[in-house]
Amino acid sequence: MKGSVIRTVEWRNGTVVMIDQRLLPMREVYRVYRDYRDVAAAIKDMVVRGAPAIGVTAAFGIALGAKQARASDVNRAFDRVCRTFAATRPTAVNLFWAIERMRRAFAGAAGREPEIVRELLRQEALAIYREDIAANRALGAYGAELLPNTVTILTHCNAGALATAGYGTALGVVRAAVESGRQVNVLATETRPFLQGARLTAWELKKDRIPVTLITDNMAGHFMQRDITCVIVGTDRTAANGDVANKIGTYTLAVLAARHRVPFYVAAPTSSIDLSCKRGADIPIEERAAREVTHIGDRQIAPTGVRVSNPAFDVTPHQLVTAIITERGVARPPYARSLAKLLRGEARAVSRKATAL
Fold first, then answer.
1. Confidence (pTM)
2. CATH number at residue 214
3. Rounded distance between C-alpha atoms, residue 6 and residue 28, angstroms
4. For residue 211, cis peptide bond before it (omega within 30 degrees of 0)
5. Cβ atoms within 10 Å, residue 27
6. Same domain (yes/no): 162, 130
7. Cβ-contact 203, 226 below 8 angstroms
8. By the 8 A CB rule, do 199 and 211 touch?
9. Residue 35: which H helix or E strand, with range?
10. Computed from CA positions of residues 345, 347, 350, 355, in that sequence, does the dihedral angle turn out positive or negative?
11. Which of 17, 167, 186, 231 could form a disulfide with 136 if both were Cys (CB 3.0 to 4.6 A apart)?
């Protein structure tokens, strides 16, 4: 296996094309977007999800918005387009990282002809896309070094090709481990309420012929007592101190892992590390619609009018994180020091040669 061939989002002939993840695993439908506002709506409505994929999609959407704008209105239109994407989802820092990169590219093109500005923005978006895939592959290789030759990995939500431009973060580690010849088995939690594990992770791994067993969220403790070698999850934002915001339920798994002395790894491309955010308590947590909890698909499963709380993410304290795997190396505690050095490029001070379990 040479990595997944799943194409999550692409720039194609002046349009943005993405797989509609709401319809998986039953239908594999690719949607074509010609208006940046529709791309922003696709992020908000979960056509595309996963922090790195959201960042890449926003970059493509901004390039598309610049392409749509009249030559006389490019400057004002660009700011409006960026603000539209910034308002889509609050937790994933990759979104704001990508917007900032596109803003810098736009500033660097100041005074150029509109067509040149549009092309420079398109090239920047494509660079973000290519860099994401390269980062995931490098991250996967570092993560694979942490694993023994035979390993059972528990993962939560979907941090695979579908959550990125390709290959994946947590599932990038899984793919790299398989490619290196390790015997890998994955347990995927269903991940209520949006069922990203059941619908997306199980679909991805089955498509790539990687052994996967689907379990309900409340089975994790049972299997932690028996079979789990390690837990590997992704992240939507990692604070400077190593606190990790990820899909709701991640904190529960981290507590279980600590109780059973199971290593808990976070796969975090550097684009998802936010050094301006000192601790997890400062990370904004998105609250999503009650219907995601009261319904599965179109079927209602809860009493009409019942009060619902639906935070999309929780925060895992850094004390519960064994290591944070990035494309520049593996960071270990104290994270306030190791993450800062990684982002400054001082990878020598971080464990680049991981220790096997």
1. 0.92
2. 3.40.50.10470
3. 11
4. no
5. 8
6. no
7. no
8. no
9. none
10. positive
11. 167
Contact 34, 78 (CB under 8 A): no
φ, ψ for residue 353, nearest 5 deg = -105, 100
- Cα(124)–Cα(60) distance, integer angstroms: 9
Q: What are phi and psi of 15, to 5 degrees?
A: -130, 165
pLDDT tens, position by position, 264-304: 999 999 999 999 999 999 999 999 999 999 999 899 999 99
Does residue 35 have an active-site annotation? no
For residue 73, which amino acid is it? D
How high is the pLDDT of residue 2? 58
Q: Which domain holds residue 104?
A: 9-136
Q: For residue 119, what is the domain's CATH number?
A: 1.20.120.420
Predicted confidence band of residue 356 (pLDDT cuts 50, 70, 90): very low
Same domain, 232 and 310: yes
Domain stop point among 117, 136, 155: 136
CA dihedral sign of residues 264, 54, 104, 120:
positive
Confidence of residue 234 (pLDDT cuts 50, 70, 90): very high
Q: Band of the pLDDT at 4, cuts 50, 70, 90?
A: low
CB 186 within 8 A of CB 215: no
Same domain assignment for residues 304 and 186: yes
Could you tell me the pLDDT band of residue 352, with boundaries at 50, 70 and 90? very low
Query: Where is 207: in which H helix or E strand?
Result: helix 202-207
Torsional class of 345: left (φ above 0), alpha (ψ -120 to 50), beta (otherwise):
left
Tell me, yes or no, whether 4 lies in a domain: no
Among 132, 208, 217, 236, the active-site one is 236
Cβ(282)–Cβ(226) under 8 Å?
Answer: no
What is the distance between the alpha carbons of residues 172 and 135, in angstroms, rounded to a whole number?
10
